[in-house]
Amino acid sequence: MTALAGADDIQALGYATFFGAIAASVGGVFFGWLSDRTRNRRGWVSAGLVLTIALLLAVPLAHDVPTLIGIIVGWQLALNMMLGPIAAWAGDCVPDHQKGILGGLLAFSPALGAVSCAFVTLPGLAGADGRLAIIGLLVAGAVLPVLLFGRPRAFPELNAVNAASLQASQIRPASPVVRMWCARLLVQIAEAALFAYLFFWFRSIDPAITDSETARLFSLVLTIAVPMALLAGRWADRHDRPILPLGISAGVLVLGLVAMALATTLIAAKLSYVIFGIAATIFLSLHSGQTLRVLPRPDRRGRDLGLFNLTNTVPSLIMPWLTISLVPGFGFDALFLLLAAFASLAVALLVTMPRLR
Question: pTM score > 0.90 for this model?
Answer without folding.
Answer: no
